[in-house]
Amino acid sequence: MTVINDVKDKLKEVGQKLKKDHPMESLLNQGIARSIPKVGDLVEGIVISIAKNEVLLDIDGLTTGVIRGKEIYDESGEYSKIKQGEKVSATVLELENEKGRMELSFRYAGHQKAWERLEKLMKNEEIVEAKIIDANKGGLMTKVGNVMGFLPVSQLNTEHYPRVEGGDRSKILGALKKFIGQSHKVKIIDVNETEEKLIVSERAAWEEKQQTAMEGFKLGDVVEGKVTAVVDFGAFIEFGKGLEGLVHISELAWQRIDDPNTIVKVGDKIKAEIISVEGSRVSLSMKKLVEDPWVKVAKKYKVNQKVKGKVLKINPFGAFIELDKDIHGLAHVSELGKDVNNPKDMFEEGKDYEFTIISIDPKDHRLGLAYGEAKRVISKKKGEEKIEEVKAEKPKKEVKKKEETKE
Q1: What 8-state DSSP symbol labels residue 25?
Q2: Mean pLDDT, to the nearest integer, of 368-374?
Q3: Measured between alpha carbons, how far is 395 from 407 in angstroms, rounded to an integer?
Q4: Pairing of strands 366-371, 328-332
């Protein structure tokens, strides 16, 4: 029994010695147990050596950390040019590997740092560079640093927004692909490390720049610029130093316009007045710089006057008629005759017809027309005009067509 006890004591002594020599035990014995890292923690160390697929770190002189293989790569780019003797941070993967070293990762550490940086950039609303990597119909794939992100079409600035007629998706994709390889200035508008979601906005960065540049302008200023794009709802004008404003279709000219291309073309140099500034959005008017022809309309046209006009457009409720290049009127369906339900049965766009003026409203830019003869009476008390009777006959060509059909 004595021999057995002696062997047990000896084994206990060896075990205690081995335990005492363990790196983690050394940390405990030095009274710094609270500093012992856990898996997932960030630790700091001094670079001992750098090899192609391995980096060794001295962790406070107590243990050696190793970063191997894919764990050397990081999203932050912070570790791409490390040098021997430099202090760096790494994430703990294992407290001890097969060689008694602490397994570390620059990849996880870089990931943490990269996303922390992105959150800080978003919070501070800073403008950063985003490289365009690819495109799809919804927007552009980007890289901010080494982190992949997305720039939606709706977040492009006015210069880069794909103005494709009819919204053809294949044409939109073609327009977006032209940006691949370029770098755009953006603001980060959404960061989610857990979902690895990064959304950026070029429009937000552009709006900040636009607002700053607009400080030298005010309402009523006349600016000179170049037409950069013509769309269904108006024309974009570049003026000042990289500023852009919109001339809405209703502000291009005094007359009614269906297609802005009939008034301006891309590349045209024009003058316009600033009529609205809302944040970064600037509204311009070309017609403000031209005398309103409706001010003198009463000198040119009178109620009950017979006029010849060209049919510009036909709608179910009536036809728009051009009396001259500035004054357009409306022949409402109710003024075309008792049996007329659709103006298309009477008129053809682009052709001239005889009308009678039945009302003039210069303030609201309205002029009412009736087809054929119109009798009116004037209320002497209030000076108001009202229709007593409207007699209209369908165009002769229409009557002829119906007779031929009948035969």
Answers
A1: H
A2: 76
A3: 19
A4: parallel
| Mean pLDDT value across residues 146-163 | 86
For residue 166, the domain's CATH number is 2.40.50.140
Kindly report the backbone phi and psi dihedral angles of residue 300, in degrees, each rounded to the nearest multiple of 5, phi listed first.
Answer: -100, -35
Q: Would 2 be classed as within a structural domain? A: no
**Overall domain count for the chain:** 4
Q: 108 and 66, same structural domain?
A: yes
Q: How far apart are CA 104 and CA 44, in angstroms?
A: 10
pLDDT given for residue 310 in this prediction = 92
Mean pLDDT of the 233-247 span:
87
Please tell me the predicted confidence (pLDDT) of residue 71. Answer: 87
pLDDT at residue 49, rounded to an integer: 92
* Listed residue (299, 248, 306) closest to 272, CA to CA: 248
Looking at residue 121, its pLDDT comes to 93
Answer whether 298's CB lies under 8 Å from 365's CB: no
Residue 273: what pLDDT? 95
In terms of domains, do 380 and 311 share one? yes
Q: Are residues 350 and 314 in the same domain?
A: yes
Please tell me whether residues 386 and 331 are part of one structural domain: yes
Same domain, 237 and 270: yes
